[in-house]
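Pinned message: reference record for succinate dehydrogenase
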Amino acid sequence: MTETLIKGLYREGEAIVDAKAPQGPLEKRWEQRKFDARLVNPANRRKLSVIVVGTGLAGGAGAASLGEMGYNVKAFFYQDSARRAHSIAAQGGINAAKNYKNDNDSTYRLFYDTIKGGDFRARESNVYRLAEVSANIIDQCVAQGVPFAREYGGLLDNRSFGGVQVSRTFYARGQTGQQLLIGAYQALMRQAKAGTVELFSRHEMVDLIVIDGRARGIIARDMVTGEVETHIADAVVIASGGYGNVFFLSTNAMGCNGSAVWRAHRRGAFFGNPCYTQIHPTCIPQHGSSQSKLTLMSESLRNDGRIWVPKKAEDTKKDPRDIPEEDRDYYLERIYPSFGNLVPRDIASRQAKNMCDEGRGVGPEIDGVARGVYLDFAEPIQRMGKAQVSAKYGNLFDMYERITGENPYEVPMRIYPAVHYTMGGLWVDYDLQSTIPGLFVAGEANFSDHGANRLGASALMQGLADGYFVLPNTINDYLADGPFPAVDAENTELKAIQKENTDRIAHFMSNDGNRSVDSFHKELGQIMWEYCGMERTEEGLKKAIGMIRALREDFWKNVRVTGKADELNQALEKAGRVADFFELGELMCIDALHREESCGGHFRAESQTEEGEALRHDDKFAYVAAWEFAGDGEAPVLHKEDLNYEFVHMKQRSYK
Ligand SMILES: Cc1cc2nc3c(=O)[nH]c(=O)nc-3n(C[C@H](O)[C@H](O)[C@H](O)COP(=O)(O)OP(=O)(O)OC[C@H]3O[C@@H](n4cnc5c(N)ncnc54)[C@H](O)[C@@H]3O)c2cc1C
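Predicted structure (C-alpha cells):
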C-alpha cells in the first residue's frame, strides 16, 4: 500500500485479480466455469441456507431459483410486497440476441455492442456470458407467461434501443419491468408456498454479519415494529438495486438507497467504479425547486420520436409547432448520422446539455437556463397514424400528459437528462462473489457488466441473467464447503455488530437537532449533481469533497429524527440511508477525481476530443477501480483490476 496519500485523499493497494475468470475460447468460458464449479447434491442443499436481500428482478429470480433447487432461502425487502421492487418501474424493454428480425444480430454482436457501449471498461468474459444467456431469459419468461408484445402473426416483436443498429429489445408495451417482475414474483410465491423461501416484507437490512471472515447473515430492522433482528445463514446474496438516489433527484423510486451495499462495503466488500453513473437523456425536465422525484420517458420513444431544438436562440420561446422545419436542428441526426436519435445515453445526454448551455434549450428556466429539448412525434403520427403510435407508446404518452398537462400527440414532449442508473456497485468476481467469502451480489447492486455506460434494456437482462442463470450455477461452488459452523448468540463479533446498530439508532433518536433528514439529503444531492453529475472537473470534485465532509459533520450534529424507534418511522429509515449516502457520495467523488479520463457516463471536462466527445486514456485507466474501506476517517484504498481485451480491439467510440 502506498505510504503517502495520493491527491491527499486515497492510498493505492495491491492489484486485484478475478480468480474465477475462466480462460480459453470466449464462447466456451461459461460452459467451462459451470462444469468446473462444484455441485451440492439435492439432499445436502436442504441443509444449507441462503439470505437474499431484495426481490426485484435480480433478487426475486435468484431467490426463486435457489428455492427451486432446494436451498432454504430467506428473502428480505423493504416494500410490503415483493412485487413493488423498483424493477416494476422499468418501461422500455429487455435485450436478447435472438435475431428475430433477421437483421444480422448474434450473441457476438450483443457482446460487442455492450463492450463498445460501455466504452471498453467492462470484462469481456462477463459480457459474453450475458449475451449468451440473454436468449434463455426470453424463453424462461415466455414459459412463465410474460406477455411480451407480439407481431400480427403471433411472433414476439422487437424494437431498438440506443447504441445499436439492430432490433433486439423485447417489450411489453411500456411496462416491461412490471410484467417481468410478475413472472419472477409468481416463481417466488410458488417457492414460498412450497416452503423453500420465507418472505420478510417491510424488513430493511441495516448491516452485514461477517464472522471469521465469511458473510454469515444480516442485521435487519422490522420497519413496522422497529425490532432489530439477527438472521444467520450459510451465504448472503445482496440484490438491493442501484444508488442513484444519492443525487436526491433521480428517476429511481423514492425508496431506492445504497445502504445494503454500503454497509457490506464497510464490512470488507470492495466497491467497484463508484463514480460510473448513468444520466438518462429522456426524462421529464425538473419543474421546480420543491420537487423530490424525476420521471423517465422510456428510451423506446427514441425509436420513432425525433429530438430537436430551435436553430436560433430567439425561437426558443415560440410554440414549437410554429417553428418551420428549416429552423429546427435535429442535432443527433445531424452529428451522428449512422445512429441518429439512437446514440447511447451518455452521448445523447451530453449533447442535450450542450444545446441548452448554448442557449437553445426550451421550456421554463431554472437558474436562468431553459433545460429542455423537444422529443417530437409529429412525423411518426403522420407516417403510422395516431392509433399505431398509441398502440406502441400509449401509456407513456398518458403518463407524460398526466404530469405536464400537455398532450404529446399535439405538442412535442420536452425532455432533459436525469440521473437514472448506477453502473458502479460492489465488486464481484466471475461467480458474482464479492471480496467477502459467502457474500454474492446480483443485479444493479454489483459493479455490473456495463462498464462506464449501460445500454438501454440491458439492466433487466443483467438482473435476470444473474438471478435465473448465473447465481444458481456459481453459488454451489461456495456452498459445497458448507454447512458452516452455527453462530453462537454470544459470539463476540456478532455482539459487536449488533451493538453498533442499536447504538446508531439510539444516536438518531436522541440527537436533539433542528434540521430534517430530507433537507440534508437535498443539499447533498445538489452538491453531487453540480460537481459529480454530467460533467466533472478536478476543481469541482475537490470542492465537492470538502462540502460533503462539512455537511456530513453538520448532519451528525444537527439532524432531527422525529417519532420513536419501536414503531413505523420513516424519518429514522431515511436517516440511516442518508448517513450512508454521505459516505458513498464522497467515495464517488474520490473515484471520479482519481480517474483522469472521460469514459461513458464519466465525463471529465479536462479529457475530451476536439469534438467534445469522451476521451479515454487506455494506457493509464483500462482497469476496474475496486475501493476498500479502511475505517472511519481513514483514506480509502484503491485496488486495480486490469481489463484485458483479447477479442475486441479498444478504440475511440464512434456513432457517426
Ligand atoms: C424509471 C426506470 C425505467 C427503467 N427501464 C428500464 C428498461 O426498460 N430496461 C432495462 O433494462 N432497465 C430499465 N431500468 C433499469 C432497471 O429497472 C433496474 O436497473 C433494475 O430493475 C434493477 O433491478 P434489481 O433487481 O437489481 O433491483 P430493484 O428492482 O431496485 O430491487 C431492489 C430490491 O432490494 C430491496 N432492498 C434494497 N435495499 C434493501 C435493504 N437495505 N434491505 C432490504 N431490502 C432492500 C428492495 O426492497 C427491492 O426488493 C429502468 C430504471 C428506471 C429508474
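Pinned by admin. Summary line: The domain at 280-420 is CATH 3.90.700.10 (Flavocytochrome C3; Chain A, domain 1).
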